[in-house]
Amino acid sequence: MNGQLPTATKPSIQTIVSVEALLESAADDPTISTLLEALFIGNQRLLTPMLQMLRPEMIDEYLDSARVIWNAISAMSDQDPSTRLDEIIKGLQFHSVDFLRRQVAFARTGDYQAEDAQTVYEEVYHSASVMKEYLDGLLLTYIAWPNHYRLLQFYRDSYLAQGPSGRCLEVGPGHGFLALLQIQSHEDNTLLGIDISPYSVAYSKECLAAAGVDGSRFEIRLGDATDNYANVTECFDRIVMAEVLEHVEQPQTLLRSAVKCSHDQTLIFLSTVVNIEAIDHLYLYRSIEEVRQMIDDCGLTIVEELDMPLEFASEASESYEVALICRPKPK
């Protein structure tokens, strides 16, 4: 492995967007120019795969995504922009370097390093120092990691663009950005978020409030969603569990709870990983088919699917990020 983050595509050299071209396109927006300089010049080795995925015709859309994410991040802090930028870049470096190190170990052992849910809770979700970098960095990966960028586009263009509006549930909102987009996608949407980390709860609330979302439209609740969705029994029109299934010991419990809290037209967004290691990954899916089979067994039908393989240098691995749009099977 060559020390680069994974990319979903391997274009020819001629199609790679240069850092100079990206910065030139953002020249009229000093804020975004500063962000991109910090990303692509200060961390060029880590961010090369993102450049490899971009095409000239994608630049405007990419800059729009970068602007939306930076606005969300910067609005949550009264620090000067330079200090805040340094913080989130450190968060991205934390995720990137830790991912590479753990993925190398996983390739050797074939197993995740995390011991159990209680240990992960104590060492990650209940640690103020870890969660600060974790949440800042995770939000920034949407414009720094190719597959996370693709996942965000799929979420916005395929999931938010269809289905009923109304009552929404997000399990594990983390940084709150997907919850923000869900609420903003329709004026009738209200949202309940459940997260096991008190720091994620606070971060999500801050993200939504800083974006100007009326407090009557959302509630972010501390709770263990593996315990019957923290005893939530109401029915929802939309449910999101993004990058959550691999973080629990029995993801079947979350999927079955989603069915219980759904009606026939409920639209459900799921994403997870296959053979990809992280500091808090517990459940190991060894194939995409295993993901599909569990979803089917738990009473859901896949409507649309995006499979994003990871590639290291010239050697493809059997590792994937998977995003799925589902509905409950007819009752």
What is the H level of CATH, i.e. the homologous superfamily of the largest domain? Answer: Vaccinia Virus protein VP39
Strand content: 15-25%
Overall SS class:
alpha/beta
Largest sheet: 7 strands, mixed
Secondary-structure element order, N to C: HHHHHHHHEHEHEHEHEHEE
Supply the key terms.
331 residues; Rossmann fold; 19% strand; 7-stranded mixed beta sheet; alpha/beta
What is the element layout, followed by pairings?
Elements: H1 19-25, H2 30-40, H3 44-53, H4 59-75, H5 81-109, H6 117-125, H7 128-140, H8 146-159, E1 167-171, H9 177-184, E2 190-195, H10 198-210, E3 218-222, H11 228-231, E4 236-242, H12 251-260, E5 262-274, H13 288-297, E6 300-312, E7 315-328
Parallel strand pairs: 1-2, 1-4, 2-3, 4-5
Antiparallel strand pairs: 5-7, 6-7
Helix pairs in contact: 1-2, 2-4, 5-7
Question: Could you write a compact summary of the structure shown?
Answer:
The protein is α/β, with parallel strands linked by helices and 331 residues long. It is built from 13 helices and seven strands. It folds into two domains: 13-142, no CATH class; 162-328, Rossmann fold (3-Layer(aba) Sandwich).
Tell me about this structure.
The chain has 13 helices and seven strands. The protein has a seven-stranded mixed beta sheet with strand order 3-2-1-4-5-7-6. The relative contact order is 0.12. Strand 1 (about 165-170), helix 9 (about 175-185) and strand 2 (about 190-195) form a beta-alpha-beta unit. The longest helix is centred in the first third of the chain and has 29 residues, at about 80-110. It has about 325 residues and is an alpha/beta fold. It has helices spanning about 20-25, 30-40, 45-55, 60-75, 80-110, 115-125, 130-140, 145-160, 175-185, 200-210, 230, 250-260, 290-295, and strands at about 165-170, 190-195, 220, 235-240, 260-275, 300-310, 315-330. It folds into two domains: about 15-140, no CATH class; about 160-330, Vaccinia Virus protein VP39 (Rossmann fold, 3-Layer(aba) Sandwich), CATH 3.40.50.150. The chain is about 45% helix and about 20% strand.
